[in-house]
Amino acid sequence: MKYDFLDPAALSRLGAIPMEARQAMTGNIAGRHRSPHRGSSVEFAEYRKYVQGDDTRRLDWKAFARSDRYYIKEFEADTNLRAYFVLDASGSMGFSAENEERIQFARKLAATLSYLIVDQGDAAGLSVCQEKIHIEIPPTRRAANLNHIFEVLSKTEPTGETGLVEALHTIAEKVAQRALIIILSDLFCDTNALGDALQHLRYRKHDVAVFHMLDPQEIAFNFERPHRFVDMEDNTSIVAEPALIVDEYRDAMTAFMAKVKGKCHDIHADYHLITTDQDYEEIVHDFLINRLTKKGRS
After folding, report:
1. Average per-residue pLDDT in the chain?
2. Whole-model pTM?
């Protein structure tokens, strides 16, 4: 493969693990994911009373023999998954202390997961947001669409201020059918506004997964001499003596991470704090396995 964010060996190893939705999905083809609508798949759901016009082939004659009343068997309908990747491409996503740039790490996660989703017959799409969503690829199952996602990822460079909150509100309004919304961002935005956007997604019954991406140095703040710190979104800068502000900084960062995690948990989002020194294949593996154990949650 020509993209440096795709590893064929990793895709082969991860391909044995299915991507599952944690809540009911809706779609227009038969698939592997639970639907909010009743159907005729193999998993029994419940009985209901027969009404005129029902398919008589689904009558339960044993129930009739016991009660002398007609009952219809209902089953869980299976459907296909639509996954919508939301990539924050603001300037701060280009940060790197010693490890890989955050944007490259995000590319690996988005590309790998989208490949696995399409490979299992489901649909993947992409929104790249800076001050506003400037690129949108609607979710489809086509291989050509997957290549389009890869091309966009390869050309995306972080710049400007974040438009993540506005993007999430837009997606909540535009994506009519239930979908898996996967957010890849450092989440450096107004946390209360972020919480409102996440609530909007939850209200629309989307399954939300959040990859909160930080560099280890952003958490540790291990600097030994004065530094000039530059805001990568608006280019403002400040010179500071780290020893004088390290405790206050770490307290603020701890509070920020806890508040973001709380906003995600408020909507039962699948939240993952990750750092760019981690193995991305292990992150994807654990993400997939974790969703298998939580299938059926609504």
Report:
1. 86
2. 0.79
